[in-house]
Amino acid sequence: SIDALASPHGMITVKGMREDLREARKQGCDGWFRARELCEGTHAERFEKKAQLLDAFRSLLCLQVPFMLWRLYFDAFTVDLIQFAGRSLLIAKNVIWALYDFVIIAACMNQDASIFGVKPMAVFSMAADTKFGKLWVGPSGMVAMLAEFGGILRKNNLTQQIEQLQQYEQWLLAEKDCAGPDNLEICEAFDEQLQDVQAELAVTEEKLRFAFP
After folding, report:
1. Which residue would you say has higher pLDDT here, 166 or 14?
2. Which residues, in sequence order, are CB contacts of 124 under 8 Å at separation 6+?
C-alpha cells in the first residue's frame, strides 16, 4: 500500500530494487538445446540457421580448439615473457571464440537462450562488432581490442542502469499522483526518493557520456 511505501521500513529504494532484480536473474537457465527450433521459419531461415550451426562446429573443431592447443603446446615452457604475454592474448582469443561457438551449438541459434538472466548469444555477438572479431597484429592492436570490448560492456551496463532508474522514477511519479496532494507526508516521502533517483540518474548519465568507445 502507499502507507507502507511511505513508512521508513516500507519505502522502496534504488538499492533494494536492484537487489530484487539480481535475485530475479538467478532463476536458472532456459532456451538451450532446442534443436526443433532449427526447423521453424521459412526455407531460407531454416537453411541459414543450419548453416550457421555447421559453421560453429567447423570453427570450434577445426580452428579455435586446434590453434589454442597448438599455442599452448609451444608456449607452455617459454622463457620469453614478452612473446608469452602476446601469445597469451591470442590464446585468450581462441578460448573466447571457442566458447562462442559452443554457445551457438548449445543454443541451436536461439538468441533468447539465457543462463541466470544473461543471454550469452547477445554478449558474444557484441565482440564480433569490435576489433576482437577481426584480424589484428601486434601489441597495440591487442590493447585496442581489449579496451574497445571492455568499453562496450561498460556502456551496455550503464545503459541498463539508466533504463532501470528511469522506470523507477516513472513509477514513483505515478505512485505520488495516486497518493494525491492532500497526503503531504506521503508526497514528501516520494519527493525525497525522487531526488535520490534523479541525482543517481544524473551521475550515471555523466559516466555514460565519458565511456569509451
Report:
1. 166
2. 96, 99, 100, 103
Sign of CA dihedral 192, 197, 203, 205: negative
Does residue 99 have a pLDDT over 70? yes
Rg, C-alpha atoms of the chain: 24
Please tell me the predicted confidence (pLDDT) of residue 211. 77
DSSP assignment, residue 201?
Answer: H
- Given a cut of 60, whether residue 25 has pLDDT beyond it is no
- Scored b (16 or more CB within 10 A) or e, 92-128 reads ebbeebbebbbbbebbbbbeebbbeeebbbeebeebe
Whether 64 has a pLDDT exceeding 70, the answer reads: yes
Write the pLDDT tens digit of every residue in 116-169: 777 888 777 766 665 555 555 455 555 666 677 777 888 888 999 999 999 999
| Interstrand relation of 29-30 and 114-115 (parallel, antiparallel or unpaired) | antiparallel
Strand partners, 118: 115
Torsional sign, CA 70, 73, 79, 85: positive
Between helices 138-179 and 184-209, what is the axis angle to 10°?
170
Q: What's the distance, CA 145 to chain centroid?
A: 17
**Neighbour tally for 13: CB within 10 Å:** 12
Kindly report the length of the chain.
Answer: 213
